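Model the whole thing, not chain by chain.
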Amino acid sequence: MEIHSPYIILLTIALTYIVINYFQHRRYNLSFKRNSHEKEQLLESIFENASVGLILVGKNADVLKINKAALEIGLNDDKNLIGSQPGKALNCIVAVKNEKGCGFGKECKNCELRLSIESTIKKGTNISRLPLKIHILRNNVDTPYHILLSTSYLETIAAPMVLIIFEDINALIKTENALIDSEYRYRQITKAISDYVYKINILEDGTIQTIHTQTCYQITGYRPEEFDSNQNLWFDIVHEEDKEKVLKFVQNSTQNTEKYSIEHRIIRKDEAIRWVTNTIVTKKNQKGQKWSDGIVRDITDRKEIEAALRESEEKLSVIFEYSHVGISLIDNEGNIQYMNPAFCKLLGLQPDKTENNFRLFTDPEDAQLESEHFESLRKGEVTMLNIEKKYTKKHGEETWVLMQVSCFRNYKGEVANFIAVVEDITERKNALDLLRQSEEKFRNIFNTSNDGIIITNFEGYPLEANQISLDRVGLSFEQFKKQKVFDYLTTLDHSDITVQFKNLFSNKITVIQSEYLNQLGEKKYVEISGRNINYLGQQAALLISRDITDRKLLQQKILNAIIESEEKERKNFAQELHDGLGPILSTIKLYLQWIENPTAKSNKTELLKEALDTVEEAIISVKEISNKLSPNVLSKYGLEIALQSFVRKIINTKNIEFVIDIELPKRLSPELETMLYRVCVEAINNTVKYAEATIITIQIDTNANILSALYLDNGKGFDVGETTKNKSGHGLFNMQNRIETYGGNFTLNSQPGAGMELMIKISMH
Amino acid sequence: METLKNKKLKIIIVDDSKIFRTVLRNFLQKESHCSIITEASSGEEFLALNNVKSADIILMDLQMPGMDGYEVTKKAIERYPDIKVLAITMHTEKAYLNELMQVGFKGCVFKPEIYKNIQQALAYIIANENCFFGEINL
């Protein structure tokens, strides 16, 4: 609001003029001295009584003269309203705070009042009615004070002066504010009025005349005059679909004196569809004249909100009904107020039962903790609870659920309802359990395996090792992992192992045999099979090391036995040559030497005959030895004939009956024939030597590529366990070795007094 | 040789080789003025004889099935300390020789050299001297 009082402007100009003239005349124009006293008095009076504050200051802003109005602003402190004494001027707020303000001190350098006056004093710039808001203390209260400031630089002979003019505009400001307020309120009120009133006169001929008030324009877009000129307009603007309804409504409401209301649509002049409520009250005067007052209110906003609400409700309701997660609304006592079908299904509840209480499904062990959780939710310490819990359904089935609980609060901030969203995580839990079980199972295998299991990185440093791996070298894992695994191996050629280890990472399965020293320093043999695996996202080697020390030792023992038995046979033949053939040849030599040096007593012819007989003997002996070394008859006629030939020699000297039953569809391989022949001969020799048997039975046949051989004697038998332990079991061990090196199966049964049974089974493949 | 001419030496032959026994008997009886009073084909058979003491010299094969010559001789000497046993063997190694002396053999002849050495050996032993021809072959 403009404050422009012409009076004040005129007064100010006049005053300025008067003051300037006054000083000029008083000091310099003595020719006017005669009238000066009168003028001075007049001016003094004007100055003193002016309604605007006037202050005359010197060059140092020292107050030279001040009028009443100005003093009032400065609470009547005449010395330093604006002055050089700090902390006093105008009782300004800065001054009170730190005793240094104003007086053009440092603290006041941003004070607009000061800046303005200062600029006039220093530069001679006049200021005209500058609106300022200053803060001054009135009764020790910080009071904003509105003024208009004008300054006037006065050039005098002695010293320049500045006239400062304050106009107090506080009252005006207040009035203006009040006006702004009231204007605003009025505007709000007019804005808020969306109803308009109309009047229906029912004429004698029954026709209807409507009179619309001004506000009809805001709702319908038509002015009252338009309704006046077109009496059907009120009906024309009704939405097509609502016309019938409205017509009926008007007929009803104008006939009865009750209050009728209807909601319908109208087409506004700008063609916008608006929802309105139309209320009609029909009255009758004493003369029997009827008229109706109608009120139309625009309810489009409400309708829109309602529709949006309905839509949102529908959406929520669909979510609620068809969600696969369980949703329930729970009151403060834990009673379930609403629950969706998924919730019922999840917890096995009947949807119609209202006595369902949430606490019924909580395990008693969890109850305490759970109620604490709810309490912290209620207090707002947490905004949502995430609880994983196990429910037991009514028929005993266990269900794992993840429950998320949050709460609704009323306007007071109190909890109105809890909302629990429950999800079935049984499958996930079960999967997790299975995973844990499987992990446990593999961990078990890992830890209890008889084989060493080691996982190494690309370079061969151990990442994991099971206990047996560590026990073998007697180290803790911390110590074990400091060295590459193959550095524990004592095999000389490490480069080969390194190559094999690298191969492993190109998807080759590697198997190596090597040796290491155990914690006692004993040499142990291992077979290490390796393959590459993905271990925790990195390429790694899985190494399984099997202790094959026993196997190696057994192999060595078998080899030794084979060597030993060969050695023994060689020794036998050596002895046979030496002791059997030796004497015969010695005899021949003697005869020949004798013949060479005949004496009277010797008969040369006789000696020659003896010598020839002995040579014949030597030939037979050589044949025998040769046949023992490699039975000629075996290679020529096969197993059965060879055995019978061997047996025949025994029958000549021993009283043993042989039953030999060999049924083979064709000749066996030479190796197998020899092996079986040797085993049989060895067995027969054993029986003859030790068993005192009378019958020996040998049966050999084949069935489905399996060769079965059975050897029986009815001798005195022996303790198998005892015999195999001592040296006399050597022959047995020998037989067993021959068969097992051929991949066959050797079973020996015997006990003292019960003969002996030997079963051999060999695959023919 | 004097002795040989005066009186026939009574000999027992112990050897498992019949052929060898036969040739030895023929040779000694015809060429060496000896009388073979008994032959035994094994040590056991020899030890069972009752005329051992009547033999002047016993010719003992060392390698025989069953009890070998060493063992038989050891037992025989225990029983008849005065008997004189000459080893007849295919083995000529020194180790055997030492053992032969320890057991109490009076001499040793290598079978292939019997024609050459037997007479001398018999003569030495009858004269109470040892005669180990095996040494020659060492």
